[in-house]
Write a structure and sequence with these properties.
CATH class of the largest domain: Alpha Beta
Helix content: 25-40%
Structural class: alpha+beta
Radius of gyration: 21 Å
Number of domains: 2
CATH architecture of the largest domain: 3-Layer(aba) Sandwich
Shape: globular
Distance between the termini: 24 Å
Strand content: 25-35%
Order of helices and strands: EHHEEEEHEHHEHHEHHHEEEHEE
Length: about 325
């Protein structure tokens, strides 16, 4: 195994990067070339980068650990924990342990801290890396950072409804009927083509900023640039959709969803505060889940955060970890 250190993503290139991601067990969109490259350009242009690549004896790229210096001596995976729900070593499936072993050899000669966030529970970074570090006499701290509520989707909407608790099924039905009664003509729409996404992203951004004060602060000028770039490029690859709950007066709620490996991920949201009493976000979510089932998707991932409304749909939480190597 050969480990090389680069100070820019272009040293790896989009084709090699995404080719390795396609052979990995975690094909998270947050680890794609588009996401990582655009994030680094937008938010880390003044930070040091360390892109560590691992090549096997046959000259095959089998691992990428893309890090940036968040603080002096503290390195994190590119993507930013505030906007990236799953981050990890990009590694060919089945070769996780040998790639981590190769990466740990040059790291032993440094005093740097690797502070790895948003790592899924099933990752070798959680299950294997701590043992490898301990065998070398190093220190590693592993802690649950957050949880992602996840739905395993059945083959039909009727089966899904039957699987909900009586309370949640009753509440969902009640809110749908109230919307129909008090806002007749409301409909759910979605766009997934690049031009359409770019055209309607402004509607999403407006609702997002109006939702809460914290969201308005989050969606600053740099973040909007990032969202507009990612929105268009992911849509071009059929990895992103924009959803709206439309009324005659304009959209009442909106979601951005990401799609990968049979999964629909609920990435971000916005709603019209003046219509909050009608639960427009929850009503729109019902349409998203029903559409995912109709299209044969197998998972609906609410992504990081355990907001109460997510659990009204009956998901199971999965842990996401922080792994810190000192």
């Amino acid at each position: 195994m050969k480990v090389d250190l680069h100070d820019r993503l272009e040293a790896v290139g989009a084709a090699a990067w995404d080719g390795l991601l396609a052979r990995s067990a975690l094909r998270s969109p947050f680890l794609s070339w588009i996401w990582q490259h655009r994030w680094a350009r937008t938010f880390a242009d003044d930070r040091r980068l360390e892109i560590r690549t691992v090549v096997d004896d046959a000259g095959r790229l089998v691992g990428i650990l893309p890090l940036y210096e968040a603080e002096p001596g503290i390195w994190r995976i590119l993507g930013g924990v505030d906007i990236s729900d799953y981050l990890d070593l990009i590694v060919e499936a089945g070769r996780e342990e040998e790639v981590w072993m190769a990466l740990l050899v040059p790291r032993a000669a440094t005093e740097a801290t690797w502070d790895l966030h948003a790592v899924p529970a099933a990752s070798s970074t959680v299950t294997t890396l701590p043992r490898l570090v301990a065998d070398q006499g190093g220190e590693v701290a592993v802690a649950v950072e957050e949880r992602c509520p996840i739905l395993s989707l059945p083959a039909s909407w009727e089966t899904y409804l039957a699987g909900l608790s009586g309370k949640h099924r009753h509440e969902l039905t009640r809110k749908l009927r109230r919307m129909e009664r008090e806002a007749p003509g409301v409909r759910a729409t979605s766009v997934g083509e690049r031009d359409a996404v770019q055209e309607r992203l402004g509607d999403f951004l407006r609702l997002h900023r109006r939702s809460r004060v914290g969201k308005a602060k989050f969606m600053d000028e740099r973040m909007e640039i990032f969202f507009r770039e990612i929105g268009g490029e992911f849509a071009a690859q059929q990895m992103l959709r924009l959803w709206f709950l439309e009324a005659e007066s304009g959209p009442m709620a909106s979601f951005i969803t990401l799609e990968w490996d049979g999964t629909v991920g609920l990435y971000n949201s916005g709603f019209e505060p003046s219509r909050a009493a009608l639960s427009p976000g929850l009503v729109l979510l019902t349409h998203l889940i029903r559409d995912a089932i109709a299209r044969g998707k197998t998972r609906f991932d609410f992504l990081r955060g355990e907001e109460r409304y997510k659990y009204e749909f009956g998901p199971t939480p999965e842990d996401v970890y922080q792994v810190r190597l000192a």
